[in-house]
Specification:
The protein is an alpha+beta fold. The protein is built from 17 helices and 15 strands. It has three domains: 6-93, no CATH class; 145-301 and 367-667, Glycosyltransferase (Alpha/alpha barrel), CATH 1.50.10; 309-361, no CATH class. It has helices at residues 6-18, 23-28, 64-77, 85-93, 150-153, 187-201, 246-264, 267-285, 370-386, 390-409, 436-454, 457-467, 504-519, 524-538, 554-562, 571-590, 655-667; strands spanning 219-221, 238-240, 297-298, 328-331, 336-341, 346-354, 363-365, 413-415, 421-426, 596-597, 600-601, 607-611, 615-618, 643-644, 647-651.
């Protein structure tokens, strides 16, 4: 008997309509319409789906949209075992007369648990990039890619691709938001304050083992946080507040200082960039596993500024099966890892996982997620691309390389020091816990950035031959749900246009990937294709008439505008990009002059829908001047409401202003005297 998959696609299509999928996905499941991955050979066996991601229960699924996508693939390649699933989906979505809002699961990936023109030469005669001195297995970036198999890494017109060539944003002049007066301080004056207070209050003090390494924190102080630049003897004493996403937030600051150095050549910016980049690298060194980051790390040697938990239960492993729980790991006196097993009330040493004894006595938080890696990969890519200093570029390149090798060595799933996969660590496309295009984009960008920056042939082959399948079918990711396929075929759907249920943690991760996706790509034609795919997947209006491109987020807008740098624009396109730059500048003009906690209450505004991730959302966006201070302002839905209270002794990380400001300065969207 011949079973035609189209017979079963129609019920799924009806479920898609009932669950209010985007028009894109409704079109994907029309009878006889092949999906981007119809070329996948084999089938997806639901028996091999882990309990935490089970397809039928929906636990861990991004939303109903993704379940329909996976079911479509199962129907096309192995329909008979899947006949009853559409009926189960209909039951899950409710009756035909149910609410029109999207019936999906709470987004479960990448949520911070604590909250949450042509290329122009830059300096072709610059110095060689040496290995960083404190890394025995560092990767030395190539001076040129002549030594690389150029067939796989050539740029336009057949020349070897050199990632150090400066990327130029479209030429100005640019609008300056004359319609907004802004705060009493100029953009430059606000940047000067935030650049000053970052190293003064928000980092580990410069002493001992922290002389040349630091990370960024929100602070709780014993007195008022200064609102102006003051002498050191007028600074309060502050405690660095623990954060499960410390590496991510520090990375936003690192990138800001690399852009600052690229824009100004300022020695202080270079020193800040190197010290905090080393701080993020320390999060990788302390874990004892190649390429594995800690969520955060703490040094009780500088107590009370930092401490480690005293309760042994804070050091227990995550739950079996679900991997829930971001608990601490202790570094023993010999550098090996310790965790606490409550069933036996014993500390258990892991002698096969050890780090440098200089970290003895410290603790670090396990179960790292892809949002942490998104920050690290973004910052390392920016610093490798923008900064011509050998130490910064060398360390940034090494970080990119270690991330890529960790993916390759662990079949594209972030893997903890105990050898178990982290809860939010899937990076391969068909992981069944996220939109395939989302994971595919992360994998493509992280491996490509590393390949182009390091010149390692192994990584160049991994990008082209494995992820792009450039030399024909190659099974290279050993996962039972994976099949040989060009990962770019997934990129037209990223899960960023699902109305009020759009998870802006995921939006931010895709934005961080976008800039490195463009400027580490050797081919102009491919850059144009990636731009078009990203616009299709991110620009609205979406199912609730919302549009990420119109939300006036300077951190997003400046990236989108800069990525247009090697493409001639029509007048209509130029108007769009200019309006996005102008919106970004307007928001920065109204950005508050400090990150000190203040009285704000936008919960009184009328909401139009409820987000599973971000709560009540208003129509439009909340003005930046009415929002509460945030660890990183641009990592949330700009339509969400919130309430906060004045506390002069508490202040958040200044990267929220510095990251878009210095990016805008580097790309020429913001002038020095604006």
């Amino acid at each position: 008997m011949v079973v035609r998959p189209a017979v079963f696609i129609e019920p799924i299509r009806q479920v898609g309509i009932r669950c209010r999928l985007s028009p894109f996905w409704r079109s994907k499941v029309k009878e006889g319409t092949p999906s981007p991955v119809s070329a996948i050979k084999g089938h997806i066996d639901p028996d091999h789906v882990s309990p935490r991601n089970h397809l039928l229960t929906g636990v861990g699924m991004q939303n109903t949209l993704f379940r329909v996508f996976v079911l479509e693939q199962m129907m096309r390649h192995h329909p008979l075992p899947t006949l009853l699933i559409p009926l189960m989906m209909m039951a899950a979505c409710g009756s035909a007369g149910s609410s029109p809002d999207l019936a999906g699961d709470v987004p479960d990936v990448g949520v911070p648990d604590s909250i949450q023109g042509d290329l122009m030469p830059d300096d072709p005669g610059g110095p060689d990039v040496p290995v960083v001195s404190d890394a025995s297995d560092a990767v030395e970036p190539v001076d040129s890619l002549d030594a690389v198999d150029a067939a796989d890494s050539v740029g336009d017109e057949g020349a070897p691709f050199d990632f150090r060539v400066r990327w130029n944003a479209p030429a100005g002049p640019w609008p300056v938001c004359d319609e907004v007066a802004g705060t009493s301080k100029t953009l430059a004056a606000k940047a000067a304050y935030y650049d000053w207070i970052g190293p003064k209050l928000h980092q580990e003090p410069k002493s001992g083992s922290h002389e040349d390494t630091a990370r960024m924190y929100n602070v709780d102080c014993d007195g008022p946080v200064p609102v102006e630049i003051v002498p050191d003897d007028q600074l309060p004493n502050c405690v660095l507040r623990s954060s499960e996403n410390n590496g991510l937030w520090t990375s936003m600051y690192v990138a800001s200082q690399c852009f600052r150095y690229g824009a100004t050549g300022d020695a202080e910016a270079l020193a800040n960039a190197l010290r905090t980049l080393k701080g993020t690298y320390e999060l990788m060194q302390i874990t004892g596993r190649p390429g594995l980051y800690a969520r955060e790390a703490s040094d009780p040697g500088i107590a009370p500024i930092q401490t480690c938990p005293e309760d042994p239960m804070e050091y227990r492993p995550p739950e079996e099966g679900t991997r829930k729980g971001n608990y601490w790991v202790k570094v023993d006196t010999d550098g090996c890892m310790l965790d606490y097993h409550s069933d036996s009330a014993e500390w258990v040493k892991h002698p096969d996982v050890c780090t440098d004894v200089k970290y003895a006595g410290r603790c670090w938080k396990r179960n790292v997620s892809k949002d942490e890696y998104s920050g690290h990969a973004y910052a390392a890519g920016v610093c490798a691309k923008v900064v011509d200093d050998p130490a910064v570029r060398g360390l940034a390149t090494e970080i990119l390389s270690k991330i890529a090798h960790h993916l390759k060595d662990n079949a594209y799933w972030l893997t903890d020091y105990d050898g178990l996969e982290t809860r939010y660590g899937s990076i391969h496309a068909m992981s069944l816990d996220h939109i395939p295009g989302f994971n595919a984009k992360l994998a493509l960008v992280w491996v490509k950035s590393a390949a182009m920056a390091s010149g390692e042939q192994e990584l160049i082959d991994e990008y082209y031959k494995c992820l792009l399948q450039s030399d024909g079918e190659l099974r290279c990711i050993e996962r039972e749900t994976e099949f040989p396929v060009d990962y770019t075929t997934f990129l037209d759907e990223l899960g960023l246009k699902i109305g009020c249920q759009t998870n802006f943690d995921n939006v931010s991760m895709m934005m961080l990937a976008y800039l490195n996706e463009i400027w580490f790509e050797p081919s102009k034609a491919e850059r144009a294709r990636f731009r078009a795919l990203f616009e299709q997947a991110s620009r609205g209006p979406d199912t609730d008439d919302r549009d990420i491109w119109s939300m006036k987020v300077p951190f997003y807008n400046f990236m989108i505008a800069a990525a247009e740098g090697d493409e001639a624009m029509t007048a209509e396109r130029r108007n769009l990009i200019e309006s996005m730059v102008n919106d970004g500048i307007c928001v920065l003009k109204n950005f508050q002059e400090t990150q000190i906690e203040r009285d704000e209450d936008t919960t009184v505004l009328e909401s139009v829908c409820e987000s599973d991730r971000h709560g009540s959302l208003i129509d439009g966006i909340v003005p930046i001047e009415d929002r509460c201070p945030a660890t990183f302002e641009w990592w949330g839905d700009p339509s969400s409401v919130e309430k906060c209270s004045f506390n002069p002794n508490v202040a958040d990380n200044p990267a929220g202003f510095l990251a878009p400001y210095w990016m805008g300065r580097y790309f020429g969207f913001i002038s020095e005297d604006m």
